Known about the structure:
The protein has a two-stranded antiparallel ribbon with strand order 1-2. The protein has one domain (2-112). Helix 2 (54-68) packs antiparallel against helix 3. The radius of gyration is 20 Å and the shape is elongated. It has helices at residues 2-30, 54-68, 72-93, 106-112; strands spanning 44-51, 96-103. It is built from 4 helices and 2 strands, in the order H-E-H-H-E-H. Helices cover 65% and strands 14% of the residues. By secondary structure, it is an alpha+beta fold.
Amino acid sequence: MERQRDKENITINFEKELIEKLEHHLREADKNKHPNMKISEYAVADLQLAFDNSKVMNLLEKRANHLKAANFEKANAVEEELTKYKNENLDDLIKPKTFFATFHTEFAYFTAL
């Protein structure tokens, strides 16, 4: 549990660092065209990380279907498979594969393109 909490904190810090780097990159890439532009014009409103967790999602759906059908033994077997998979692949499961950014301004959006 502690290992997972540490990994979650790393992900949160990664998100913050990514936002800072993205905003900095946008300002630097655009400073010659718009040298007097306010820093706030490049602000990221939201950032969502995407993970490769399709196997986990499939196992969760499979478990849910067994629970809905009251097949508790099968649900427990899927739960064990899910736990084993998570324990063996935690590092890959919490590593972001891509991200989606929303900006405060249309100007920042077009600069990012």
